[in-house]
Amino acid sequence: MSVATLPERSDSPLAAEHHTELATANERAKKIRKAAGVANFNGWVSAIFALCSALFALFSLVGFFVFAGLAIVAYNEFQGRNRLLLFDPTAAKFLGRNQLGFLAFIVAYCVWMMFTGLTTESPLAAELDENPEIGQVLGSLEEFDYLYKGLIVAVYGTVIVLSAIFQGLNAVYYFTRRKHIECYLRETPDWVIEVQRTTAAST
């Protein structure tokens, strides 16, 4: 693939070969910057969910842990993004582990919700006891309880499966970015790396 060189200005302190090296480095860094964009997106999504759960954190211990977990995931994604833009090889592993930790957090939450849902009385149980006529419409309490618990297992089981796919693929994606960072550092002149790190730090 040919790399277009930047037009050389008469007042530029860089020679033509320097412009070529910068252009080549920019091309080489594309996959790294794309990964930084993915981390930025994941961070904002996690931060939005954390903000949405903040109200529940005031009223329940589970709500607090959900808020704290999402906030930590979001913070780590933003930190990982910054480290990617600085071409830190450890950033890839850091982000990959963050996604695996996020997956473990989601699985633990879903398992807890299934446990509490299967071991506690269904929401309409008390209402059915007080108003038997409702039971004539919905069926027996046992039938409703069976459907209710089946729904709980289906919903949280689906969340676990989808999270395993999404977070798992995210983790694999992040882990495989390390080779691109190492390739960039190995093949890019030091002065170009410093220029691009300085540019990234100022954004």
How is this structure best described in words?
This protein has helices spanning about 15-30, 30-55, 60-85, 90-120, 125-130, 130-140, 140-175, 180-185, 190-200. The chain is mainly alpha-helical. The chain has one domain. Helix 3 (about 60-85) packs antiparallel against helix 4 (about 90-120) and helix 4 (about 90-120) runs antiparallel to helix 7 (about 140-175). It is elongated, with a radius of gyration of 26 Å. The model is unreliable at about 1-10 (pLDDT under 50).
* SSE-based structural type: mainly alpha
Helix content: over 70%
Order of helices and strands: HHHHHHHHH
Which oligomeric form is depicted? single chain
What's the total helix number?
Answer: 9
Strand content: under 5%
Total number of β-strand segments?
0
Q: For the report, how would you describe the main beta sheet? A: none
Poorly predicted residue ranges: 1-10
Number of domains: 1
What would the average pLDDT be, to the nearest integer?
84
**Terminus-to-terminus distance:** 29 Å
Indicate the overall shape: elongated
Rg estimate, integer Å? 26 Å
Key structural traits:
203 residues; mainly alpha; 9 helices; 0% strand
Secondary structure elements and pairings:
Blueprint: H1 16-28, H2 30-57, H3 61-85, H4 90-119, H5 125-130, H6 132-138, H7 141-175, H8 178-187, H9 190-201
Tell me briefly what this model is.
The chain has 203 residues and is mainly α. The protein is built from nine helices and no strands.
